[in-house]
Write a structure and sequence with these properties.
The complex is a heterodimer of chains A (533) and B (176). Chain A is flat and about 100 Å long. Chain A is 21% helix and 39% strand. In chain A, helix 1 (3-18) runs antiparallel to helix 2 (24-36), helix 1 runs parallel beside helix 3 (38-57) and helix 4 (64-78) runs antiparallel to helix 5 (88-101). Chain A is of the alpha+beta class and 533 residues long. Helix content of chain B is 77%, strand content 0%. Chain B contains 9 helices and no strands. The longest helix of chain B has 28 residues, at 148-175. The chains are: A alpha+beta (533), B mainly alpha (176).
Chain lengths: 533, 176
Amino acid sequence: MSADDSAAEIRELLAAHRDGELTAEQLVRLQEQLKSDPAARRAFVQEQLLDAAFHLETPGNLQAASVVHPVADTRRAETEARPRSMGRWAIAAGLLFLLGLGLGGVLKKRPVPSVAEGAEPLDDGIALLAQSVEAVWSGDVQPRTGSILSAGKLRLTSGLAQIEFYSGARLILDGPVDLELVSSNQAICRSGRLRALVPPAARGFSVISPRFELIDLGTEFGMDVRPSGDAHVQVFDGEVKLYPADGKRSPERSQRLLGGAGASWLASGTRADLATDPGSFPSFADVRSRTESRARLHLAAWRDWNRSLAGDPRIAVRYDFESAARTLQDSGSAEAHGSIIGCEWTNGRWSEKGALEFKRPSDRVRVNIPGEFDTLTLTAWIRVDASPDRLQALLLTDGFEVGRPHWQISPAGELRMGIRTPSATPKVGATGYGSSVLFKPRQIGVWSFVATVYDRHAGMVRHYLNDREVSAEAIRFDQPLRIGSAEIGNWGVPLKNSKQPVRNFVGRMDELTVWKVALTGDELQAMNQKGRP
Amino acid sequence: MPSQDPTEVFIRSLTENQNRLYGYIFSLVGDHHAAADVLQECNLVLWRKTGEFRAGSAFIPWAFGIARFQVLAHLRDRQREEARLLNPELVELLAGEVEAQAGQFEELRGALRHCVAKLPEQSRELVDRRYFRKHPVQTIADEMQRKLSAVKVALMRIRDGLRQCIEREMRGANAS
């Protein structure tokens, strides 16, 4: 048989295979040909690769290179000036994409051992916004105090912000500052003023400016990058090394600066010495004292507003967490005072504001809230301190009776109002109104304002987070709500000695109000504004 | 000078070679679902063996070697299934040929795109249904109200034409 004939036969056999019509005899024939004839092998591989190519060209199928490359390439282009490890997270993300998610459409889902360690939650955080004073951010990232920060751009328009990198380095940004976080050990300052404290553990931390790259050898320094491109550095203590910003770190091109010395590298190319003046950059003590004085002002304003709510007829019960006793005081009647079990008093949104800390499965506040509601609004200030991997209770009525709401955070991190409807079994008879996912790892440890409005007149259930409505859903079963015996931060099933699901809230709460009315989006926004830490 | 961080070099090589690896594995497995599974396993093994890969050494031969091993393991697991196209002996026998051709896989894909674009409308429609969207031939025949055998013959001809076009394209690319 000639090579051409042999190839033609292989193609025919493979066409039958593709069509699912290859007989057992044909399979034996195919295998014999492959075994004995190199031309058959060549044609076989050619055909198979052609099919693989067809497959990869089909939209929706595995497109590894074309999916991953743009990411890697932009990162590469963007970071040409950076010497090392640039865009590594992007590539690693690409890899995870390949291994886990991206191939999901094509690959059957299977447990992924060792690399991703099963379903362990992943987070690409590299730093924390530890403090901020009157910080105004522009751009996509709008962090709040306590926010975890990942690699990316940060634009502080005004105010002060203190960033703590996971490497241990600390920066104070004195707005306006245009900063890019690269890794836990590196940042780019395009313009603006910052002060850095680099303890020995973070030695090697570097800041890149348009003129130079600064490698810190354990020190405290100030940096000022002007819009013109002129960059100035003042070393207050310790030692830094400057290299030209082209990423080529060679000893002969470096400039060493010791404590008490400063340098100006101008856009024109000239370099000059600079005197140091530590007082010209805000210090860590400044940030602390300004944070504290701002907090006192905010707290005073909030207290004024809190007092103004006394006797408000719209309020069913209100816990302002202001008196640290073992009874949680309702600002209205003593009937609705809560009994604190476990929970310790701690500080809230402001250091001098009281809050309860919920941590252990036993922590809870038992309350009894009378009344029947056609409209109901629940509002609270909470700080979720653990990734919600199970239901976490905010306010749960005992048991799960018809018309009694369960206000909680779902395992996925949604704010959720579950209400039992009259039906034979709780499973069938439950209607749940969930928000989008709000409590991702990024929202952990950040004070948040949460609100849920149940409105029979409008026929809607709405959820709010901070200043925005995050979901609106039509009521699926129209009924009035009652609360009665309930728990804050936990779920008690009284009477029986049975075991019960663990639903305790992990975090802090420093304000909770049950309103008899359906508050509007504007009213809630105003409330968020009053209470924002 | 690009970064020499070994992990980074490794990850980049791995992502850049996903399609080649897929082509390699599919050639020997002959089923897209199975190939995708084997590729995923292969990625994990490559990742675990990162330490064996030294930056600067050739990634592809090393990765293909591990891919071959994974294909063999896959065949062993499915010993009793009838739909197997190849046996371990043939996989070993074909490995050299696959390695040689799969190395050119990106060129093949480029040529394929080019050649498909040049097809007449009707042929392109057939190729799209059969080879891209993988509709069964019978379905295509029914939808186009044509005889099954006629569709099969037409597809065979188009595929022959495409293959010749691709060979020309790739020869041209290699010559220039």
